[in-house]
What we know:
Layout: H1 6-9, H2 18-29, E1 44-55, E2 58-66, E3 76-82, E4 89-95, E5 106-114, E6 117-127, E7 133-142, E8 148-155, E9 162-174, E10 177-186, E11 192-199, E12 205-210, E13 221-230, E14 233-241, E15 257-262, E16 277-278, E17 286-292, E18 298-303, E19 318-319, E20 326-330, E21 335-339, E22 347-363, E23 372-392, E24 397-403, E25 408-415, E26 427-431, E27 437-444, E28 447-452, E29 457-462, E30 471-489
Parallel strand pairs: 1-19
Antiparallel strand pairs: 1-2, 2-3, 3-4, 5-6, 6-7, 7-8, 9-10, 10-11, 11-12, 13-14, 14-15, 15-16, 17-18, 18-20, 20-21, 22-30, 23-24, 23-27, 23-30, 24-25, 25-26, 27-28, 28-29
Amino acid sequence: MKEWTREERYRTILEASDEEMNELKDKVNRCPYRQKFHIQPKTGLLNDPNGFTYYNGEYHLFYQWFPLGPVHGIKHWYHVSSKDLVNWKDCGVGIIPTEHFESHGVFSGTGIVENEKLYLFYTGNTRNEKWIRHPYQCMAIMDVENNIQNKQLIIEDVPKLYTDNFRDPKVFKEKGKYYCLIGAERKYDNLGTIVIYESENLFNWNYKDEIKSDFIGNGFMWECPDYLEYDNKGVLVFSPQGLQPEGDKYKNIFQSGYLIGNKIDFDNCEFSHGEFFELDRGFDFYAPQTTESNDGRKILIGWMGLPEIEYPSDENGWAHCLTIPRELILNDDKLIQKPIRELKQLRSYKISKSYILNNEDINIEKFYERIYELECDFKNIKGRSVGIKFRKGNSEETLFYYDIENKKLVLDRSKSGKDFAVVYGQERKCDYKGNDLKLQMFVDTSSVEIFVNNGEEVFTSRIFTDEKSNGISFFADGNTEVDINIWSLKSK
């Protein structure tokens, strides 16, 4: 792939000609890896979901976007909306970096609805002539016509305790006051943390303190903070950079996860919590953001990608997509992630099969779709391993299986077409023990999302296989019964 100069990375869409954009669109549209039911960029690079909010009868979602190529250049916010979280309308570019306080990019942030307007908060990225960064926390206001105006600074300075890694405001209302969480890195020990600001009116903000947490020494920067409450519990979601691998955990370049505890004490900035859990066990998941649905469910969408990694679609002028929306349910101090029920409307024709497997590998016949949802129940499992092979071709297959002897669930993409990020390994695992196993899988052109036992664990991954690799089989090194339902899915 070409080397991008600094000048090329820091051109906005306003500086690109129609001819340049049309050529890039044509290149992207010829790519065999384009998704069918996931949010993806028309051109260039997508990353963090931003401003995820229910407003004026619709869900509004923005994402980080560099329009001119598959690299991390000057970030814009792209805007899509939906009434059902499945069928998304293209609303065009939401925020273009045009002001001095966002001269080098409109970084991540969130939204909050007040007074029939959507207030959007984000980090304005700037660099001086010596390329030293200074982040500003900014706000813009969207009306019911989707007009975004009134860009303004709300927090100009970084408190002296923190480096210029100071970004990604999460704004919410609690007991009549507004709070803003910002991901940060401390100067004195170069460890990640989250700081709290407070406001009476969304415009004037006062620094309170950083969140007092027992999660110490874990990562040099905590990106994309988010906060949820369930009855008497608080859940702090964030993406710590710099965690070192521990067994099967923290295998990707960067991680996303959560802490569960008592609700944050905003008077004293204290958060008493349990251990840190990864949100996803797969290869490609980062920077999730949540919102509350119009019927009170907590919904998460993540970036199906990671920073500092090249992907096979880069060659075709685009990179990354977002995950399907997931409902978050708190169950015994753990977050359960379930595909939202609205996704059922994508289902088309269905096939159902039942097998008793005895040291064999059985192919699913007469199903040749590449885009599908699959549910399977393994029961009375015995032996060494049971699992599924999908996207099978002459030399390709992706494996998900239960390693019974080692009590592990394993996702293996070592034969999943084009290799990438192999320095971080080609298997992902987590502990599992049981005689039964239920899987729900969503397979798109170049991705898979696997939900284990109704969302107790999730494995999210990109896979870049040949178009002819569409076989599915179930196998057992031992014995098991398996019931299977597969739906072809409609393209959006």
